[in-house]
Structure prediction request, 206 residues.
Amino acid sequence: MTNDLSPDPLDDVVAMSVPTPAHLAALHARLATRAEEDGVLDVSYRTVDSPFGPLLVAATVDGVVRVAFEREDHEAVLDHLAREVSPRILRSGRRTDEAARQLDEYFAARRRAFDLPVDLRLVHGFRRSVISHLPDIAYGSTASYAAVASSAGNPNAARAVGSACSHNPLPVVLPCHRVVRSDGSLGQYLGGAQVKAALLAMEAAA
Prediction:
């Protein structure tokens, strides 16, 4: 009777056939790079750490098209991008690296304004006018919904400004958190009222 405890060569074959996470990541990076080079990647995305949880950052060739808080459900946001922009979406850092760097600087209180190309294809009409005026509100300050309505060309549209801010596809980058009610109360925010208050407090303390 023999007791052969020598390793089975098939074990090595099985072990070699199971890719490691690092190998999969490298393959994914090569796929994303090739897709961009071949012009078949329409939306690149990544997640960025923030004091308020991970942010989804998505970009097209024209610029950053979406920033989303975790509470918005990142998978739902990606599904919406697939429907409204293109289903050709991959996780890739190449288009989103600069946005990630500037967001990191902002949350570390080292950046007061974003210098990024943006793609506003997800907003239309008066909402786009409102969203476009948000960077005019200086870091550390606020503006009322009524004041933003006037800046956007419709002084009687304060309620519509609130709706536009609640549908802002680029929170933080386009600072709808700086828009408050005329009585000074904060109003609603995509990231939640606590996040809005924290962003304003962070800017005031900088």
Summary: The chain has a mean pLDDT of 87. The longest helix spans residues 21-37. The helical segments are 9-17, 21-37, 74-84, 97-107, 125-133, 145-151, 158-166, 193-205. The longest strand covers residues 43-48.
